[in-house]
Amino acid sequence: MNPSGNPDGEQAQPALAEAARHRTVLDVSAQRIARVYAEALIGAAGSDEQANEVVEELGSLLHDVFPADPRFEAFLAAPAIGRRTKAEVLRKVFGGRASKLFLNFLLVLNDHERLDLLRGIYKAARDLLDERARRIRVQVRSAVPLADDQRERLAQELRQAFRLEPVLETRVDPELIGGMVVRVGDWLYDASVRTRLETLRKQLIERSSYEIQSRRDHFSSDT
Predict the structure, then answer these.
(1) In whole angstroms, what separates CA 162 from the centre of its chain?
(2) pTM for the whole structure
């Protein structure tokens, strides 16, 4: 029963769990479909050079065009807007500005009503290219920009650890105070000053609590 005394909260829990499970299934399904389209795009490109170029075009759409005009992304993903209308807009926007392969790919996605998977396709395509080139993406957060010698030293250590060519994606995060946080997939290395200070703070609290409890036990035994 929920705090208000209404049992509806308990009854809603199974429904919420089922909705979450259904959403997870849909997410996994979308990832699989996105990878199929990514494989098709890279296969159509033929050479590694052209594959990299067309994936860069897709990345530019996501990271340059969409942020500049969020309504355009919403327009492409909207199921209520017909495919013919979207195709006309795609040809108008990208005709003569993007490669023929990229425009055709967008038109194919539109025909299959899959333009809402653009972000997933980009991630899958980039992963596939990284696998081909034996690269690995590394997210690096640091309190200040890394110096060139720091970047090279970090890259060399990652090469030795993973036997792959690291691609460093750096971001400055002043909240770290100092040091850096390195993430490779599920692997995380946190050498930030903020984390060390937080660890020290917890150790001091635990030690203080232990000493207080020890004094209480000692006092109790004396009495």
Answers:
(1) 20
(2) 0.69
